[in-house]
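A student in our group prepared the protein record below, which I am reviewing. This is what I was given:
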Amino acid sequence: MRKPIRLLLGGGVIAAVLLGAAPSAQATPVVVLSAGHVDIADVAYEDGALEIGVHDETVEPDVERDVDDVVFLVKNAAKTTVPDNPAFGFLGTAGKPVWILPEIQNEELLWPGLAAEEIEAGVLTGDSVTLKVEKVTGSGRVAVFTEDAVGNPNVLVNSGDGLPDAVNLSAGTHQHASWAFQKAGVYLVKVRATATLAASGATVTSEPALYKFVVQP
């Protein structure tokens, strides 16, 4: 079965039917995160396996959550327009709406990070782990990007020009990027982590993580 998650969008309530197991009496309640700092992809290496979780710092004390237990709400306050600059063409047509969770914190919105802080130095070849965005389904395109000191974008992920896309993370580090959504609606983003073990040269790959975003009109 699929489990419906009811979310408040704009002035009304819609039912977003998202992938998941049938609920049970022991099921973990779904948490909707809409503001504050959260490492959307928190990669760890434990017991011989790579794992992807969510490090939620919107609560005190902070907690680790399973990706399946979280819905990320992109609020209406994230709505802006595509800049009139060809370098931002990956976001769509200049002047058209786009919803952006920014690289620099806006306390009204989610501040999404990417982290490999729990991976010790020397465990992985090159102290590097790769996050692969394998599939995006939903209302429109998704892009993840950073900007340099003068505002030029560096595109990390762009579902509009084909997937998979890869983001490299260094062991023991944490970084931020802007997340952009082309249209309001529901998005499912499939991500997997992969790395090479320094000791054996073996490749390790995580189970896929399916992220759920709801973008308010």
Summary: Confidence is low (pLDDT under 50) at residues 1-25. Residues 146 and 154 are 5 Å apart (CA to CA).
